[in-house]
Amino acid sequence: MVGSTLSGVLQPRVALYLRVSTEGQDFAGQERDLRAEAARRQWSVVAVYAEKVSATGKVARKEYEHLLTDARKAERSWDHLLVWSLDRWSREERFSRAVATIEELESVGVRFHSLREPMLDSSEDGTPNMGRDLLRAILPVIASFESRRRSERVRVAVREIQEGRRKTKSGRPPGRPRRLDDSKVQRIANLRGSGLPWKSVAQRVGLPAGTCASAYSLLARGLWKPHPLEKVVS
User: Fold this and answer.
1) 19 with 89: CB under 8 angstroms?
2) Does one domain contain both 141 and 228?
3) Which has fewest Cβ within 10 Å: 36, 89, 115, 129?
4) pTM over 0.85
5) Model confidence at 229: pLDDT above 60
């Protein structure tokens, strides 16, 4: 689809998509740069879709959906879409899913362009984008490698902490803090032994009645063993 003429040359028509994450941000910077790029390419800007929506996915992207609906219309006024970057366009965590929406646009005749990532642009002659295909092939491998490295680092850190060769960032032992120690369990046993009901025992030691009863049962059966690495809360 073509627009107005510039020195006798028909100008392709382009839509801009702008997105910021918070109400405190504005679109001025993105729109200024995208319009400058459109002017450089001698494109006529005929539509602007702009919205303030975070990347969490909890809020619907009305302008994004509006754009996709317009793109599917046979009578749409534009055949090019220009965005600031892929992360402004898509909220998908996986690169392959983000690219899928680009390919959906291409299937209805819209050419996609990213100002910050020109390697993602639709090809001018309709042939497959080799750079995009290469990224789609290698990024999952890189992500998997990084995930394995993170997991291994965590396992090493946990082992070193358990062996006493490394401290946690807080300086406290790992795991959830325990509310029982030997002295508190013994106090529970003494109070219960004096004939107090569990509700009264719980009130005096500041713990739930069920916790007191479980500790008393473990002690009575000789199974009470405080974990050496867990913090004791008085």
Assistant:
1) yes
2) no
3) 36
4) no
5) no
